[in-house]
Design a protein that fits this description.
alpha/beta, binds NADP nicotinamide-adenine-dinucleotide phosphate, 14% strand, single chain, 252 residues, seven-stranded parallel β-sheet
């Protein structure tokens, strides 16, 4: 079965690096028009050019997801240029590696505002519009294996992702009757800009040795689940699911 998204419009946040770049490319290859959002607009412009050179349609949108009016404006522009958003990949995120006693209020605000409030603001605006347009929408929140089980030194990040998991279930509950499915992917360790330096440190090498196959994943390891959750027909019965894609990280 090959999943096609022709004629659909997808919004991918955090598309200026890492997983978001891959998500945008994969959805565009499947035929979706993609609105790609983040703060680093130079990178978005580069990605949009690459997608369009490959025959797709991409719209770069400078947007800080922690700013409600910027979120509204970006989504308005996406819908004006590309049509109503039927697929949202809520992917923007930041991390911080600090023990609880060392975190300050600014750390708390940065991580929770981006990973939780930002995801909420984007999903709320897109969800309202999906309901208004009567669209069978698909929302995919990118949580984390750390939202299922924390590790010390990552309390703020883990808490933000645990809350995002609960928020996903609430969206699924409230929006099922409108034909909107909301699910979360909890990736294990995938090498991206967010963590690439870490794997070369002593702590990173020790953690690597504890992983089920002593390796981290690549962004392409999420392609299948992303397409399934973004699809109309193929994923229509999947709602409120919290899906770990981590090579069995917590089974041992
Ligand atoms: N890599 C992993 O191992 C892993 C594992 C589990 C979950 N995740 C999750 O996957 C998502 C992507 O992570 P990644 O590994 O691809 O990291 P990344 O390369 O650092 O990408 C993070 C993205 O979020 C965007 N972003 C950050 N703050 C933002 C803001 N205020 N407004 C708008 N966009 C913002 C960044 O864009 P700008 O800086 O240009 O705004 C960037 O595009 C995150 O939610 C992360 O928590 C990653």
């Amino acid at each position: 079965m090959s999943i096609r998204l022709d004629g659909k419009t997808a919004l991918i946040t955090g598309a200026s690096s890492g997983l978001g770049v891959r998500f945008a490319r994969i959805l565009a290859e499947a035929g979706a028009k993609v609105a790609i959002a983040a703060r680093r607009t130079d990178r978005l412009a580069e990605l949009a050019r690459a997608i369009e050179e490959a025959g797709g349609r991409a719209l770069p949108l400078g947007c800080d997801v922690t700013d409600a009016s910027a979120v509204r404006l970006a989504i308005e522009e996406a819908e004006t240029e590309l049509g109503p958003i039927g697929i949202l990949i809520n992917n923007s995120g930041v991390t911080i590696s600090k023990r609880i006693v060392d975190c300050d209020e600014a750390d708390y605000d940065r991580v929770l505002d981006t990973n939780l409030k930002g995801a909420f603001l984007v999903a709320q605006e897109v969800g309202r519009r999906m309901i208004h347009h009567g669209l069978e929408g698909r929302i995919v929140n990118i949580a984390s294996s750390l939202g299922l089980r924390p590790l010390s030194g990552l309390a703020l990040y883990a808490a933000s992702k645990a809350a995002l998991i609960h928020l996903t279930k609430s969206m699924a509950l409230e929006w099922a009757r409108f034909g909107i499915n909301a699910n979360a992917i909890c990736p294990g360790y995938i090498e991206t800009e967010m963590n690439e330096d870490y794997w070369r440190t002593e702590g990173g090498r020790k953690l690597l040795a504890l992983l089920p196959r002593k390796r981290v994943g690549e962004p392409r390891d999420l392609d299948g689940i992303l397409l399934l959750l973004a699809s109309g027909e193929e994923g229509r019965f999947i709602n409120g699911a919290i899906i770990a894609v981590d090579e069995g990280l917590y089974l041992g």
